[in-house]
Amino acid sequence: MRIIAIMNQKGGVGKTTSSVNMAAGLAMQGKKVCLVDLDPQGHASLHLGIEPMGNVPTAYDVFSGFKTLAETRQLVAKNLWVVPATLDLAATELELVDAENREIVLREAIKKMAETEPFDYLIMDCPPSLGVLTVNALTAATEVIIPLQPHFFALQGLSKLLETTALVRRRLNRNLKVSGVVLCLYETGTRLAADVTDDLCAFLGESDPEAPWADAKVFQSRIRRNIKLAEAPSYGQSVFDYSSSCPGAKDYAGLVEEIIAGEQAEESPLQQAA
Ligand code: ADP
Ligand code: MG
């Protein structure tokens, strides 16, 4: 199972849009996918048409220890389950402050689910902060994908974020790695986007071989700015269901292909050893 944290402490960079459409695209390719909404704003849940009300179990119940992931997830499309979030989840940050093992709650929950029902992919849509929810995601993850909007300050925020992955790798999750950066809200043909992309590639190319991002790549698929991607959430649909041939659907389909291609890259060293 690949456990992917979609993370950037900046808001509005395309985390939720990428989490939802990657998850939907992978499910359409026959992968069994669970999307865990870790943002108290619940945008990923809403994007896929879930408006949790009343006693519907959510991610909050998983962090509180009242429910398992299996009891919380909802089937929203073929091969695609969502663990929804509501504003309740904001309380988790506070409630876990003094809890022992507060960083590993989600990892334990995922381990438990995987014992009885394996998924191919578990994708976590992180909130725009580096608080306890994001740390839980990083502790549980096998890899991190960072959506980045190419503008002047993007690389500054990136180093803070990468430091956090290094810290979590040292203390909590030795296997954590950053597999890639996906450029979102990309303005094709602008000088700025091209410059930031070059700087980013140079920065990643020079990284310390011991760093979690040593093998990180910039995905070839750039997610262009496309209004259909912004419209799809209000219909409770992934971009593939909302407008299957728009540029946004094409870009995310390309990204999904690259992610699936990464499966072989991950398996090959083992297969060679076998
Ligand atoms: P985050 O989760 O990082 O806060 P979102 O994925 O919610 O970011 O994106 C922020 C806003 O931008 C949302 O309204 C979303 O619909 C819109 N958006 C995201 N990606 C694109 C894109 N490629 N083209 C147009 N709008 C986009
Ligand atoms: Mg979001």
Automatic annotation (TrEMBL):
UniProt keyword annotation of Glycoprotein present: no
Pfam families in the record: AAA_31
SUPFAM superfamilies named in the record: P-loop containing nucleoside triphosphate hydrolases
Enzyme Commission numbers on file: 3.6.-.-
Claim: Hydrolase is one of the keywords in the record: yes
GO molecular function: hydrolase activity
Gene3D superfamilies listed in its UniProt record: P-loop containing nucleotide triphosphate hydrolases
CDD domains in UniProt: ParAB_family
Coiled coil residues, start to end: none
Keywords: Hydrolase
InterPro entries: AAA_dom, DNA_Partitioning_ATPase, P-loop_NTPase
Domain AAA, chain residue ranges per copy: 1-178
Membrane-spanning residues: none
Name of the protein: Soj-like protein
Source organism of the structure: Gimesia alba
Source organism phylogeny: Bacteria, Pseudomonadati, Planctomycetota, Planctomycetia, Planctomycetales
